[in-house]
Amino acid sequence: MNKKKALTVILTASAAVIIAAAVLFDGIFSEKTAEKSGVAMGSVISVTLYGDFKEDTAGKIISRASEIENSCISRYKETSEIYKLNESGEYTLSEFTAEAVSKSIKLSEASKGAFDITIGNLSSLWDFDDMKNQAPDEKDIENALKTCDYTQIKQNNGAYKLGENQKLDLGAAGKGLACDEAFKILKEDNVSGAVVSAGGTVLVYGENSGGKGWTIGIKTPEKDNDGYFAKLALNENAFISTSGNYEKSFEKDGKLYHHILSPSTGYPAESGLKSVTVISKEGLISDGLSTACFVLGYEKSLTLLEKYGAQAVFVTEDNKVLATEGIKDSLTITDENYIFN
């Protein structure tokens, strides 16, 4: 549940190429197009607008992502509410941040702890962002695990109290939350169509340049391969989030260690998967579900996905591709190394 890999975004006249998912266009962008990118939450935030839009819409989306990080959810920034809650153990959150925490706790409950926002001590211990390429001491992991328990969080009218030595980490939901806010801005500004990417989460909004649905290319789950192994057709607004073991990882003594940690073992999740891509109507949910489903594995994820009305594409370690019923007929494998199971 650590932060997902930052994205490099390349926008051309005919395609938007995004590392976690590629938005593919059959036609050409309309003449009136705006493109803007910035950095927030440790990732590139990229916005492409076309059709009808306001000149400052893209800038507002990127500024809002930075505001969410700096004022609300960062566990590193001293100005953030989550930082203050982590430091003091008790803090009254704003309505916005409290709602994000509440939704995250509900997802923790629904996933039976596969997604757990009290994983902060464990995330810091592994610290894949620092690329130490070294597994922590087993005893340190055991101690960090003692603080991973979302049921210890107490709340009373926005005042949150953590369990002893607990630290929250909203890294597995933050980029999705930024895309949720982007959706609100796009709607308020009456934008015709847009693509917004934030880390491992992508929002497709409105209609593309040809007035058609969206075609999403799902990234090949391999390091140093920015291609896609499958195409997914979507006909409406959607949030697409991908979690994979190729994003932040290292090998030691023949074993792969990746950044998606299991809150039950304290080690990188071993569920037989390379990646999970979740399609949902809400960014925070798609982001959190992609992590939870990676930890749970295919079979155990199905009930959880059904609960949230979400769809998903799973890639196993032996390159088999599984998809939920709602999107099976819309998925096309484009790489012969992957087999639709």
Would you write up a description of this structure?
By secondary structure, this protein is an alpha+beta fold. The protein has eight helices and 20 strands. The radius of gyration is 19 Å and the shape is globular. The two termini are 27 Å apart. The strands form four sheets. It has a nine-stranded mixed beta sheet with strand order 4-5-9-10-13-16-17-18-20. It has a six-stranded antiparallel beta sheet with strand order 1-2-3-11-12-19, with no helix packed on it. It has a three-stranded antiparallel beta sheet with strand order 6-8-7. The N terminus is likely disordered. Strand 11 and strand 12 form a beta hairpin. It has a domain of 94 residues: T-fold (Orthogonal Bundle), CATH 1.10.3980.
- Major sheet: size, sense and barrel closure? 9 strands, mixed
Order of helices and strands: EEEEEHHEHHHEEHEEEEEEEEHHEEEE
What is the CATH first-level class name of the domain at 68-161? Mainly Alpha
Task: Report how far apart the termini are.
Answer: 27 Å
Helical residue percent band: 25-40%
What would you give as the CATH superfamily of the domain at 68-161?
ApbE-like superfamily
Can you tell me the residue ranges where pLDDT is under 50 for at least 5 consecutive residues? 1-19, 26-31
**Chain-averaged pLDDT:** 88
Total count of strands: 20
The CATH topology of the domain at 68-161 comes to: T-fold
At CATH level 2, the architecture of the domain at 68-161 is Orthogonal Bundle
Shape: globular
Structural class: alpha+beta
Strand order of the largest sheet: 4-5-9-10-13-16-17-18-20
Strand content: 25-35%
Number of helices: 8
Rg estimate, integer Å = 19 Å
